[in-house]
Amino acid sequence: MFKPSAEFKAQANLGSEATYKRLYAESVNSPAKFWGRQAKELLTWRKPFKQVLQWKAPHAKWFTGGALNVSENCLDRHLGTARENKAAIIFEGEPGDIRTITYKQLHREVCKFANALESLGMKKGDRAAIYMPMVPEAAIAMLACARLGVIHTVIFGGFSSEAIKDRVNDCDAKLVITADGGWRRGKVVELKSAVDRALTGTPKVEHVVVLKRTGNEVAMTQPRDRWWHELMAEAKAEHKPKAFDSEHPLFILYTSGSTGKPKGVLHTSGGYLLGTTITTKYVFDLKESDIYWCTADIGWITGHSYVVYGPLANGATVLMYEGAPNQPGPDRFWEIIDRHGVTIFYTAPTAIRAFMRWGDDYVKKHSLASLRLLGSVGEPINPEAWMWYHKMIGKKRCPIVDTWWQTETGAIMVTPLPGVTAAKPGSCTRPFFGVVPKILDDNGKEVPKGSGGRLFLTQPWPSMLRTLWGDDARFKTQYWSEIKGIYFAGDGARFDKDGYLWVVGRIDDVLNVSGHRIGTAEVESALVSHPAVAEAAVVGRPDDLKGQALVCFVTLKSGQTASDQLKDTLRAHVAKEIGAIARPDSVRFAAGLPKTRSGKIMRRILKEIAAGGEVKGDVTTLEDFSVVASLQAED
Ligand code: PRX
Question: Which of 22, 87, 202, 235 is the most exposed place for a label (fewest CB within 10 A)?
């Protein structure tokens, strides 16, 4: 147990166990009272809400009757206050270019870009896809959409053109916002050309806005494609934001599930903004003077909630870095922390493990004295990495918040509160306000403390997903049907004797590779789309660095010959179909896959083989045991 220090406690935004207990009890026993008060205190409403929650499981409406503008909450309300000339974003590009953008300047840019979007015909309810590097313009694009009530869908810059096409078509985006490229490990990642390839199959897209970032040559198709800087040169700097209903959709974010098709998680305005605002304030103990750095890309939920909406609604100074952690050297992050005086640092266990592997010397060259709080997100943090983070980066001085949450939850759900909760390395500890986690067995019965089971959240919370875009039936079956009416998170977990939560990981067919969710079915469908492949099964293998590695078992069509070259071709094919993050770590050819007599692939067996272990457990339902023997011999 790592208890909070007296110094930290004394200055914490929420500094006592008694306050946590009192507020937590109120939040779960009288949610309408608790959330109603927080919504009034933390957000600026144009029209007050009438009712805090309308709950007809699984559909929630928060703050009904209320109207607000999310961009106004992140920008306009800081103007005319002491924050007006405070840095909203400190940006460092990978080549070393640095820009500081104050709240007043960010407001101006967002207003201009909102006007530019309007000039292209974008209006409330339209969808815009954003496919950009980690540059301030990505946040500007998101906030300008929010200002107009345009629903954005950010597509991670590492996804392929196929993935862009699927997402753009799924939500019928009218507009794509992109850049010529972004910098990554000293090279240009070409974004516009990927968009061009995607747009050969997206009939609804009318315009593409292109930011000039890297200066590489791009093809501009007239009149579809417009330069960001040309639109901005013509745009007015004033823009009066309209107020939208609290339940107006803010964004769609696609995430992997257990089928081949990514799910469009829908978040709306008031509840989402409240969830991200309150967690940023208390989980990160945010102070006016902090320089806050969350290393997530805006393409993921962490980038939405804890680079853009949560911190800006709180008037924080956000550090944004474009590139790779080891460019030009493995100490780039530590250099950045010292150069800008970063005080709060939020990153992923997979990154921490990479830093450990690169060696302590790179850390020791830097002071890191400005840091006061550390965070972890995306996957369970192994205690060894936690200890290294604590000693080497936090110098035993900084509390670590291990935050459990999901794309679907919108905001942090289970986490230590700094200054209050004693940490145990590897546990995300206790629920945040309004969150009621339960571990249930297959029959929906609560398991005793210490036993494992499936993780559910039994009460609705403001930043919960509202549905899956265009597929409410899947929303219901995916999350609310395991046990009717309560939210199934898809994770396995247990409570220990102190009531601390330990999340073990996904128990569905979703892998967590370097903190990124990848559906095995998506990779399988990419593999079988290659002409040489007859059948494919994809499983995870424990990996020291990535958490899980992708192992693919592939049977070939007759007439095809297994070769190392074909393995490489298939790995490249998956990267082309989905994106480099899904490139398989290993491809293994097999004469057949282990199946039950009813034809279901027995993944459990493949997992054991992939992990290099013996095949244990029951194989009596297996159709042909010789398949397993040959798969083991293959390795
Ligand atoms: O399995 C859990 C894991 O990441 C999943 C959610 O992934 P995604 O929607 O991509 O969002 C990641 C960023 C919020 C969860 O179902 N996960 C996330 N944070 C933790 C975690 N597992 C253990 N501990 C965490 N702190």
Answer: 22
Asked if residue 50 belongs to a domain, the reply is no
Three-state SS at 213:
coil
- Centre of ligand 1 to C-alpha 524, Å, is 22
How far apart (Å, rounded) are the C-alpha atoms in residues 524 and 535? 8
> What distance in Å separates the CA atoms of residue 469 and residue 474, rounded to the nearest whole number?
10
Ligand 1 atom closest to Cα of 428? 26
Give per-residue pLDDT as tens, 228-268. 999 999 999 999 999 999 999 999 999 988 777 889 999 99
Question: Is residue 148 domain-shared with residue 186, that is, in the same domain?
Answer: yes
pTM for the whole thing? 0.94
* Contact yes or no for 188/177 (Cβ under 8 A): no
Q: Which domain holds residue 558?
A: 514-633
| Atom of ligand 1 minimally distant from the CA of 402 | 26
Q: Ligand 1 centre and the CA of 556: distance in Å?
A: 34
Same domain as 124, residue 203 = yes
Q: Is residue 535 part of a domain?
A: yes
Interatomic CA distance for residues 146 and 308, integer angstroms = 12
- What is the amino acid identity at position 529? S
Q: Which atom of ligand 1 is nearest to the CA of 505?
A: 1
Q: Which residues line ligand 1 (CB under 6 A)?
A: 255, 301-302, 377-380, 402-407, 428, 489-491, 503, 505-506, 512, 517
- The residues that bridge with 446 in the sheet, in sequence order, are 440
